[in-house]
Here is the input.
Amino acid sequence: MTRALINVPAKAKRGDIIEIKTLISHPMESGYRVGTNGQMIPRDIIHRFVCTYNGDEVFRAELSPAIAANPFISFFTVATESGSIAFEWAGDNGFAASERADITIE
Amino acid sequence: MNLNRRQFLVGSAGIGLAAALPLGTATATPAMLEEAIHGVVGEATLHQGKVTLDVPPLVENGNVVPLTITVDSPMSEADHVKAIHVFNEKNPQPHVISIAFGPRAGKAIVSTRIKLAEAQRVVGIAEMSDGSFWSGEAHVIVTIAACVEDVN
Amino acid sequence: MIEGPRRWCFLAAIGFAVVAAAQAGEIPASDRRTDYQLMSPELRQMQDDDTVNPGMLWVLDGEALWERKEGSQGKSCADCHGGAAASMKGVAARYPTIDPKLGQPIDLEGRINACRTVHQGAPPLDFESKELLALTVYVARQSKGLPIDIPDNPATARFVDAGRSIFERRQGQLNLSCAQCHDDNWGQKLAGATIPQGHPNGYPVYRLEWQSLGSLQRRLRNCLFGMRAEPYAYGASEMTELELFLAWRARGLAIETPAVRP
Here is the structure.
């Protein structure tokens, strides 16, 4: 089943500042909601998101329970060279997901 | 580019701490917000400015609030934003998101969607490469769509 | 005594008056509009941009499920229907429809499950399951932009009327009918939120309240809960009759699936 929706331009000119959009499927259960049995529903969130560009870290976010479900994060990075932009998410209960997108620099 | 991970993790360690707090405690207070900000800024001066929080002033549902944080910075090697920390005032815990940047970002602009429990302030703190701290904030009113369901 | 063409005009005029009276309170076509218009610019953008619309996560799942071989027949949807963009275009716009075998209304979820049991030899998918939502939203999305088109024939009209009487009936502890809010008071405020006309043209919908995609039946259960009335069970005949009436009531509005709603 689809985990994530990534948008990275396939091509860019060297030095362009490109926008990257990421959307991942995850309930982001805050840990503050009470279930129908009267018990707190345990926290279950993604707490880290890292983007690397040909292995170099270019963006990192630490997420809290205040991030909405199906976390959407969009940010910018400078198109430096052709290669691979990789995304990793890590969360509670051993959650781990990764995606990558290739980019060609003209 | 080396993100100074230790400094960043220290700043965002509060998120880990908050997770260790007993759940179901009273909702956050402005005092918790100030304490969280202090955890990042320490004794340094907190300047007002450079940080803009774009959030709708009136929100239809606090479960999904679009937020864009923009920091006015050339994002050059010499002068850039190292980190952004966003806090809230009235959720059960004060953290929202902490972001580590560097000059490779090009622009210090991040968009995401957050949860807000009720009408409150959202505060953004930017940590610059020269060690200075800048802040900006927004005030959001939260309404809830009518006819909600049982939590299931 | 009125003779000739004038007699027919006279009878038609009476017929029209009777029909018009039965529809008193219904939103006139010129005022009928999608609840998209009540949303903030940020939410509209969330809906309009496929790269940021959370509902697209389910559409992509549906696209994968469309190709998956299922059941004792080992067939996928694609095996019979080919590419969904062509074969499913216009389908959601005319659902719910009257199933000729059952002689009763069937919605898109019901149609998908009927295909599974009859043609794929697979068990029906549970209501609100990720898979049923994914397939439904994928199929409905192929009609995006097309106007809802429920036909005006006696077989359909009988069930539209059944749905209408549910819509207009006072129910629950508040003794409130759907029509009182959504026909008579749309556009006004209820506890800080603007009352929508309540059209089904974006379903399955990513509802912010749910932080998830969900079906029209789920939303109707929320409505009934909000009215302090007993919610109809998933799959109940009242549900499909109400869904059919709502589609008929929204005729002409464009499908927006997957919509975003508060």
Summary: Chain A has a mean pLDDT of 94. Strands of chain A lie at 4-7, 11-12, 17-24, 46-53, 56-63, 72-78, 83-91, 96-105. The interface with chain C takes residues 1-2, 5, 7, 21, 23, 25, 27-28, 68-70, 72, 74 of chain A (CB under 8 Å). DSSP finds no helices and eight strands in chain A.
